[in-house]
Structures are given as C-alpha cells and as structure tokens.
Sequence to fold (358 residues):
Amino acid sequence: MPSAVGTYVMPGAYNTYVPNPDATGNLIITFSRNPASFPLPNYVQYRNVSKSTGLYLRIDPDEAARILDADLKDYVWPDGADAPKKAMTAEFRYEQYRAERYAYPMQLGNLAREEADWDIEGVHKMFNAQKAMTARTVKTVGMLETVAKWDSSHVAWPQEYSDVYSWEASTSTELAIRKGIQHAWLQIQKSTFSHVKYSDLVLVMSPVTAAKIATSQEIVEYVKQQPSAPAMIEGSKWGMDLMAMPSKLFGLPIVLEDTVKATNARGQSTDARSFVMSEGNAFVMARPGSVEAVAGGGPSFCTATIFFKEEMTVESKVDVDQRRWDHRVVDHFDPVMTAPVSGFFLRGLTEATDSSSD
Fold:
C-alpha cells in the first residue's frame, strides 16, 4: 500500500498513486475553491498601476460645498461693480502607495508528477491560488480593522448611538442595528457632501458576527411580524447562506467576508482555522464601481483600493537539471484606505466583543 494511506505526507516518488484507482474512483478530498469566489472584490476597488511605488491625488472636497453665510454675501454682484474675486481654490495633497511583491511557491519531483493517478499539478495550482487570495484578504482586512486608518468620527461602538452595548443584545425597542446603520450613513453623507448615496454602500461582516446578529430580538421580532416568516425560516426567503440574515439589512447589501485562514504549521495537530475578519466588526463601505474618480483626476469615494503592480501571475516550469516541477503565484499589491470618509467602522457588535468587557 502507498505510504500516504490514512495520514498526511509530502508528495514523493512512491506515494502519489493508488494501486487500484478504480476502487476509489480517483476520489480527491479538497477544500480548495475558485479564487474568483472570494468576497474581497465585492467591497474593495482594484486598480492597476505601472510602478511599485507611486502617488495618488487626494483633493479636499470642502470647497465644492463651502457657503459661509446664508445671505450669500460673499457672492453678491451689484450692478456696475466688479464681479467677486477671491482665491477659492480646492486644497489637495499627494499620498503614497507602496506595493509589495509576494511569491507563493510549490515544488514537485518529476516522478511524483508522472506517476500520480490524480491531477497533482492542478490540485497544487488551486491550492496556491487560494493561498494567494487568502493572503491578499488577510492584509486588506488587517488594514480595515486598524482603527488608526479611519477618521475618528467614522468609528463608533453601539452605546454611542443606542441604549445597548451590542447589536446582538438589541431589541425592537432599542433598535441598535437600525440606529447604527443610520448613524454611519449620516456621517458618511456629511463627510462626502452627499456625494456618496445610500445605494453606493455595502455592509461587510464575518459569518460569526452575522450569525449572532441574526439571533437578536430586533431581527427576530421583525421576522415574527412578517407574513412571509415561514418562508424566511425555511430559507426560501432571505437565504440561509447569510446565516439567516436578510440579503440586505435596512437597504444595505450584506457582504459576508467568509475567507478562512489556517495558522498552524505543517505537521501540527492543532486545529488553528479562523475567519480572517474578526468577530464583532462590521464596515459600511462604498463599493467598487459605485463612485469612481472622474477621468483625468478628482476625488475617488471608494473606501478602500488595492493598487496592483502585478495581479496573481501564475508561473510554472520544469527544472530539467533537478528533475522537478517549480510553480508559483506572484501577487504584487498594496491595500490603501483611499477614502476613509466614505466608510464607517462599526465595532463591538456582539456581546463577546462589546466595550463593556474592556
């Protein structure tokens, strides 16, 4: 029998084939998934760049809405007088991105490739693509969960806008969930001078957060009062793929950031799998393609952007001298908060993460 039976081993010359493949139907057990299914592009803008390091322009939009007096005295033009002349230009600044290049390598000996009774190259390519997408998500979510990246007025705990400490504990009386979304939206609207519309936004959270919010009395009571409540419970309405949450929450499409990472080293028996996005966090964000910068410049109101010098280049070659197959996925990128005023960081939404435990 091959040495790989019943245990995990590294692919080698004598363990990548099954003596009787018909007995198993060449069964492959894999948790790999198509990288295109990752949630990241649903809430982060992608932008290609020609250089690893560069500058992007951020323009202060205040001038576009600056009216100091209700009687418009700064703009009155009496007959026969000179037209108003004042230096009312918009302020701007340049900010830097710095893309880092990452390579995710794999190697297989030629004997392992040639004698495998399963698509050993294809499986390893899938795994490497998933690893690259997972790593990209880890870095981007880590940026979003850094409070210092946000404007202070765009971060809030539930008790700052409601009478409870978490969305999970909210009832149909407190309405902390509705109040939280309204609080975020009003702040975004003021900060962007109503340039970002409600329809431009999405609500991003982890499945753990969604599952706990779905059990809140605010949501449960709402469901009980609907004629379609049985269909909601059965999953034919709303959909159980959103942890029994509606596909939209008070009008905002929900994006479940369900990417999972494994932090245990090879050979360790400890189960160290976890969702990339932390429990209790949620982000209201202007989604990609909703509010883009005009051609040639101007402010972009997408909350976050990933600048790509190179996006998931797949490279493979056969090393004749070493008689092996070398494979790698290359990703060269930098996630940046390009417009933090168009988003909002909602913190401590579950009882395990509310601020009362600090």
